[in-house]
Design brief:
It is built from nine helices and four strands, in the order βαβαααααααββα. The protein is α+β, with helices and mostly antiparallel strands. The model has no long low-confidence stretch (mean pLDDT about 95). This is 2-hydroxychromene-2-carboxylate isomerase.
Length: about 200
Amino acid sequence: MKTLTFYFSLLSPWVYMAGPRLHELAAETGTRIVYRPIDLLRVFRETGGAPLAGLHPSRRAYRGVERTRWARHLGMPINDQPRHHPVDESLAACSVLAAERAGLPVWPLAQAILAGVWVRDLDISDPETLVRIADEAGYPGRELVAGGDAPSCRGLFEDHTREALANGIFGVPSFVIDGELFFGQDRLDFVRRALV
C-alpha cells in the first residue's frame, strides 16, 4: 500500500476542488492518506508567496478566472468573492485534527469547512460557525471545537506547519509520495501515475 502525505489549508479554493478527486483516487489505488493541515499564511510569509489580497490586480483577476473555470469544469459550486477570506484558520484546522485524534474521518469535515468558505460564505475563524458546520456534517461539533482549542492540538498544527516548511512545501494542495512533491490540484494526473 502506498502512502501519500497531503498538505492542505482550509482557506484554499484549490484544496476545496482537489479534495473529492484525491479521495476518489486514493480509494481506487488503495492509497493511505496522511493528513497535514498547515498554516498557509505562515507558509506564504516564509517561502516568498503572497495571499490572494497581496497579489498584483492582474494576477488576482486571473486567479478568479481560473477558480471559476475549474469549478465549472468540475461541476462544483464556488463563491468567487467570499467575505471571510482570508481569516485565521487555526481553530478550524485544529478541529479537524481533534476529529482525527477521536478516530473520526478527517476529510468529510475538512471538505465541509472548505465549502463553508467557498460556497456558504461563512467565517471559519468563528467557533460557533465551526460548531454548526461540524454538526451539520454529522460530527460532534462542540466537542471537536473545544478539543481543537487545546494546546496539544494547537501544537500539532504548528508541528505540521514546521514539517511542511522543512519538506519544501510552499503552497497547497501539496502531495508527497515516496519523497516526491506534487503541487497543485491540476497535478492529480501525475499523482495518479505515481500511485499505480
